[in-house]
Write a structure and sequence with these properties.
globular, alpha+beta, 4 strands, 69 residues, four-stranded antiparallel β-sheet
Length: 69
């Protein structure tokens, strides 16, 4: 299963990661970071009372299950 990981830096230190399952095929780094910046601009990324201040990373994580013989 593929998962989009969006990692933000928090004001007090540390990171916050949002994960979205089954992202659209062909997403680009620019597209994802544009959306992440809009999230920051609206103050929509918070953890408790700690607000995200920057984009740290964005990537697709691809995990698969392999059955044992």
């Amino acid at each position: 299963m593929k998962t989009l990981k969006m990692v933000f830096t928090l004001e007090a230190g540390g990171n916050l990661t949002y994960s979205l399952n089954d992202p659209k095929e062909g997403l680009t780094q620019a597209e994802v970071k544009t959306v992440m910046q809009k999230m920051l601009d609206k103050g929509a990324v918070v953890s408790g009372e700690d607000v995200a201040t920057a984009i740290k990373d964005a990537y697709i994580y691809d995990a698969s299950r392999i059955e044992l013989a």
